[in-house]
Amino acid sequence: MKNIQISPSILSADFSQLGEEIKRLEGGGADLIHVDVMDGHFVPNITIGPPVIKTLRNYTKLPFDVHLMISPVHKYIKNFAEAGSDIITIHPEATDNLIESIKLIKQLNKKVGISLNPNTEVSVIEKLLKEIDLVLIMSVYPGFGGQKFIPEVIEKIKKLYQIKKDKKLKFDIEVDGGINFSNSKEVISAGANILVSGTTIFKENNGDIKKNIETLKSM
Questions:
Q1: What does the pLDDT read at residue 2?
Q2: If you write DSSP's letter for every residue of 70-111 in order, what string do you get?
Q3: Residue 196: its H or E element
Q4: What is the DSSP string of 136-188?
Q5: Which among 189, 183, 179 has a CA at the least distance from the CA of 157?
Q6: What residue numbers bound the domain in which 141 lies?
Q7: Is 38 strand, coil or helix?
Q8: N-to-C CA span, the chain
Q9: In angstroms, rounded to a whole number, what is the distance separating the alpha carbons of residues 108 and 63?
Q10: pLDDT tens, 27-42?
Q11: pLDDT class for 101, splitting at 50, 70, 90?
């Protein structure tokens, strides 16, 4: 049986008490904490930066799965590493030199994640997959929480999983965007082993985080 991990997105949390929300997620069985960083430039929204992540680091020992939706991203990687990120995920379009950005993340002893927007093909990173710890497949266009899942990305997940299998590679396949109880099974079957979910985890079953995480894992 595949080991499925849940990385709840704090984008859907109560921002007035983020530290307590993170404690709730840890108590509810989250495997990672997904932190969406948006700059209002690469995506049409602005969220949080390194100082907030550094403060939140005090509330949990769970790995911080930090998704940088900022451009240019390279010059900020060190700041986010020093703030307490464990996985740093960047977009190929947000750096002038993807190979150098990957090297920098590794030099800082962090796991490397690469995110693919719905319209970004797997071929963009195929030759670099052996250098990557995680591929984040976006199943919505990044910028805002609560969007509907784009079903066409299922084929992309399948393609990526097949490459992983054929080449005997070790990277995780994470999917983010509109993940809920009705589509999580298909996403897992396609090859994903980490699910990012915000609205479903915080809002379903009257906000019963533990039940929602367990339900997503068991689909």
A1: 74
A2: -SS-GGGHHHHHHHT-SEEEE-GGG-S-HHHHHHHHHHTT-E
A3: strand 194-197
A4: EEESS-TT-SSPPP-TTHHHHHHHHHHHHHHTT---EEEEESS--TTTHHHHH
A5: 189
A6: 5-218
A7: strand
A8: 12
A9: 15
A10: 999 999 999 999 988 9
A11: very high
Three-point CA angle 76, 94, 65, nearest 5°: 60
Q: What's the CA gap between 179 and 199, in Å, rounded?
A: 9
CA dihedral over 178, 31, 185, 2, signed as positive or negative: positive
Residues 86 and 75: their CA atoms lie apart, in Å, by 17
Return the active site residues: 36, 176
CATH assignment of the domain containing 137: 3.20.20.70
Contact 183/150 with Cβ under 8 angstroms? no
Pairing mode, strands 33-38 and 5-8: unpaired
Q: Which amino acid is at 9?
A: S
Of 20, 2, 1, 21, the closest CA to residue 11 belongs to: 21
Could you give the number of structural domains in the chain?
1
Q: Which residues share a beta bridge with 88?
A: 66, 112
CB 100 within 8 A of CB 72: no
Per-residue burial over 150-188, b = 16 or more CB atoms within 10 Å of its CB, e = otherwise: beebbebbebbbebbeeeeeebbbbbbbbbbeebbeebb
| 142: confidence class by pLDDT, cuts 50, 70, 90 | confident
Q: How confident is the model at residue 218 (pLDDT cuts 50, 70, 90)?
A: confident
User: What is the value of pTM for the model shown?
Assistant: 0.96
